[in-house]
Amino acid sequence: NSGSFNVTAFTEEQEALVVKSWNAMKKNSGELALKFFLRIFEIAPSAKKLFTFLKDSDIPVEQNPKLKPHATTVFVMTCESAVQLRKAGKVTVRESNLKDLGATHFKYGVLDEHFEVTKYALLETIKEAVPEMWSPEMKNSWAEAYDQLAAAIKTEMKPPS
Ligand code: HEM
Predict the structure, then answer these.
(1) Rounded CA gap, 142 and 27, in Å?
(2) What is the pLDDT of residues 14-44, one digit of tens each?
(3) Which atom of ligand 1 is nearest to the CA of 110?
(4) Residue nearest ligand 1's atom 15 by CA
(5) Contact (CB, 8 A) for 122 and 150
(6) Are 66 and 33 in contact (CB under 8 A)?
(7) What is the interface pTM, i.e. ipTM, of the complex?
(8) Could you read off the pLDDT of 80-113 as tens digits, one per residue?
(9) pTM (whole model) above 0.90
(10) Binding-site residues, ligand 1, Cβ < 6 A
(11) Rg of the chain's alpha carbons, rounded to an integer?
């Protein structure tokens, strides 16, 4: 039931699939991250308006010099959080914390449907990055890890106190 709070354990098998695919993608993080974000904007063009560095820019999105660094941060953070999930026993984010991430996403007006589109774009990006290892189990593992990360951010989406 998608509405209930998620306490599902992330299994060793799921962890292994996430680790294996992340190890194969790591060296191409920048390119994959850019693809990931362009996919988000292809599905939801209006999401561009949320980003300060895209909103008032005349440069086409794919040429915006700020997009790739930002996309890479988000992509690497998402993947590393998935890799850590079982060992940490909870969602962790490097070089930030969930409270700040929640406050930022609240401030910029990120909605549930943006998280959904982003999930779809993430899964498509990984599928295309590692077609030879892609499987329903691998898709599930990434989906589960992403859902837990998104839920953790959403829980903190409120004005900073
Ligand atoms: C900013 C991560 C989902 C939109 C950020 C930042 C990080 C981040 C690290 C920079 C924080 C800062 O500058 O303080 C993530 C992660 C996500 C996620 C790990 C995974 C669930 C989303 C989604 C959207 C979104 C679904 C909407 C499509 C934004 C916006 C900003 C931002 C608009 C501010 C960008 C700006 O400076 O203009 N995110 N994010 N994020 N994120 Fe996310």
Answers:
(1) 19
(2) 999 999 999 999 999 999 999 999 999 999 9
(3) 27
(4) 74
(5) no
(6) no
(7) 0.95
(8) 999 999 999 899 998 889 999 999 999 999 999 9
(9) yes
(10) 40, 47, 50-53, 73-74, 77-78, 96, 100-101, 104-105, 108, 110, 114-115, 118, 149-150, 153
(11) 15
